[in-house]
Design goal:
This protein has helices at about 15-30, 75-80, 105-120, 140-150, 165-175, 200-215, 235-250, 260-265, and strands at about 1-10, 35-40, 40-45, 65-70, 85-90, 130, 150-155, 180-185, 185-190, 220-225, 255-260. With about 270 residues, the protein is α/β, with parallel strands linked by helices. It has a single domain (about 1-265), classed as Glycoside hydrolase/deacetylase (TIM Barrel, Alpha-Beta Barrel), CATH 3.20.20.370. Strands 1, 2, 5, 6, 7, 8, 9, 10 and 11 form a nine-stranded mixed beta sheet that branches. A two-stranded antiparallel ribbon has the order 3-4. Helix 6 packs parallel to helix 7. The radius of gyration is 18 Å and the shape is globular. The two termini are about 15 Å apart.
């Protein structure tokens, strides 16, 4: 059996719930859970590494406070509560650029703890899974995330950023060609890049997803809701590819779509999760 975890990044207090509905209704109707990496208190001036405005923010100038807790979007919170097929995971704190590529231990711990509190104050369960913006972790951030969460989802491991005590387990995993890492009670999942992205050719996208899923036991598929509505324009072709992915996942008897919570709770049949 192959297991798939769908991870959609960057939902925040400014995300229109109708965008999520249009993208993920085919998944929800087929009981395929969608893991939303939610920014607890989004910066309304968040910037990309290139210096531009983050595309998950609405176009134009935003008046109001510099950050918005997710609870401020009552319509979005209500929509997510009414659709339990969406599973909420913590995506950083405010999505400051590389906010968890930090050596400030106190600030990292504050961002993790306050971010979790903002999610629970919005009525969501205590988060079990953590995703850093841009998948960028410092060594300190990895240690703090492990303290708090059962699952960490990231893109890759960097030797220089791994805590020293983790390195023997990492080397063993490399030797055994295991893409994921288990440290104590925490599972750290890597992913094969953002396969569901407008930056990739649409014609081969589904085929690449299929190859990735069937090549290993647990695969995290990462996408971003705003990529399907770039600059206020809906990309119907890209949306069709996402919906074709849902149909393929639902139709395979040897593929099961699960949530990060399922993994944390040990709800996989015999065999190691990572």
């Amino acid at each position: 059996m192959h297991y798939v975890i769908l991870r959609d990044d960057d939902t925040n207090a400014l995300t229109p719930p109708e965008r999520l509905e249009e993208l993920y209704r085919p998944f929800l109707n087929q009981n395929l859970p969608v893991n939303l990496a939610v920014i607890p208190g989004v910066r309304t001036d968040a910037r990309t590494p290139e210096g531009g405005r983050e595309k998950f923010l609405p176009p134009g100038r935003l008046d109001g406070p510099p950050t918005l807790p997710i609870a401020e979007s009552t319509g979005l919170v209500q929509y997510l509560a009414e659709n339990p097929g969406f599973r909420i995971v913590q995506h950083g704190y405010d999505h400051s650029l590389f906010e968890f590529d930090s050596t400030n231990w106190a600030d990292v711990r504050r961002r993790i703890d306050v971010g979790a509190r903002l999610l629970t104050e919005a009525g969501f369960p205590e988060p079990e899974t953590f995703v850093a913006p841009y998948d960028r972790f410092s060594r300190i951030s990895l240690v703090e995330a492990k303290r708090k969460f059962d699952v960490i989802s990231t893109g890759w491991f960097e030797w220089s950023r791994l805590p020293v005590s983790w390195r023997p387990r990492y080397l063993l995993g490399k030797l055994l060609r295991q893409p994921h890492l288990r440290i104590g009670g925490t599972t750290i999942l890597t992913h094969p890049g953002c396969l569901l992205s407008y930056r990739n050719p649409f014609g081969t996208m589904l085929d690449n997803v299929q190859k990735a899923v069937l090549s290993q036991r647990v695969t995290v598929l990462v996408t971003h809701w705003w990529e399907y509505f770039r600059d206020g324009t809906k990309d119907q072709y890209f949306i069709n590819v996402l919906h074709q992915t849902a149909s393929w996942l639902a139709g395979r008897k040897d593929v099961r779509v699960i949530s990060f919570h399922d993994l944390a709770a040990g709800r996989l049949p015999a065999g190691k999760a990572a």
